[in-house]
Amino acid sequence: MPKGSWWWSAGVAALLLTAGCKQQGPQQQQDVQRDAHAQVETAQEQSERALNQAEDAQAKARDEQKDVADAQLDVQKAQQDLQEAQARAQRETQEAQTAQQQASNRAQQAQAEVQQSQQQDAEAQRQQQEQMARTQQQVAQQQEQIARTQQQTVQQQPSGQMQQMVTGRVVSSSPDELLLSSAGAPGQPQIRLQVNAQTQVVVNGRQGSTADIAEGSQVRASYQDVGGEPTALRVDVTSSHQGTGGSQDLGGSQDGQPRQ
């Protein structure tokens, strides 16, 4: 009950007692007044207790409201944290997907580069094999040409003449003759070979001429006597560097010794 109602009730009771006292004797009036005072005090105590209870209830309500407000703040903060965590997780997922896509693109690019490199290597090998085949074909053609030339030379040789071989170092070379000597052996004989249009010159496996024969080169030559002159039939350059000399085969010709 509100505090005002208690005071109103107590006042009414006091008035009633006062009115009753006027109709009774002094002793009875004193008893009635004591009862009225007791009731007023009881009412006051009850009013104070009710007031204290109301204040306690209000304080408790304020505390509960504060707890509710704090709880709402906690919920809002938790919701905000959850939203931030979701946004962060979504961002990290997107970054991971982007990184995975980039890695896949790099892997595809690397694979394409490897395939291109393999194709280039295969093409280079094919071209090299074709070049080697062409070179071998050219060498075979040259060897065939040399064989035909040798055959023609043999056919053109006068019958009864012996072909001889000599190995030595080139002392001098001209379009008309070669001067050969055994290098590093003083006193060794020299041989002067005549060179003509029928003389076959081979340098490093290729058809050449006397202009390709450098002084100091090591050569092996076949020759025969033509009109009393040692005439070269074929000259093979075996080394373009000055060597230590080689042996000569100055075998007998029809007149016994080659021209010195």
Relevant terms:
single chain, disordered C terminus, 260 residues, alpha+beta, seven-stranded mixed β-sheet
Tell me about this structure.
The protein has about 260 residues and is of the alpha+beta class. It contains two helices and seven strands; from the N terminus they run H-H-E-E-E-E-E-E-E. Strands 3-2-1-6-7-4-5 form a seven-stranded mixed beta sheet, covered by helices on one side. Strand 1 (about 165-175) and strand 2 form a beta hairpin. Helix 1 (about 5-20) runs antiparallel to helix 2. The longest helix is centred in the middle third of the chain and has 131 residues, at about 25-155. It is rod-shaped. Residues about 240-260 have low confidence and may be disordered.
Separation of the first and last Cα atoms: 161 Å
Number of strands: 7
Q: Return Rg in Å.
A: 67 Å
Q: Name the shape in a single word.
A: rod-shaped
Q: Note the run of SSEs as H and E.
A: HHEEEEEEE
Task: Strand order, main sheet: write it out.
Answer: 3-2-1-6-7-4-5
- Uncertain parts: 242-260
Helix content: 55-70%
Structure class: alpha+beta
Strand residue percentage: 15-25%
Q: Sketch the major β-sheet.
A: 7 strands, mixed
Provide a concise account of the structure shown.
By secondary structure, this protein is of the alpha+beta class.
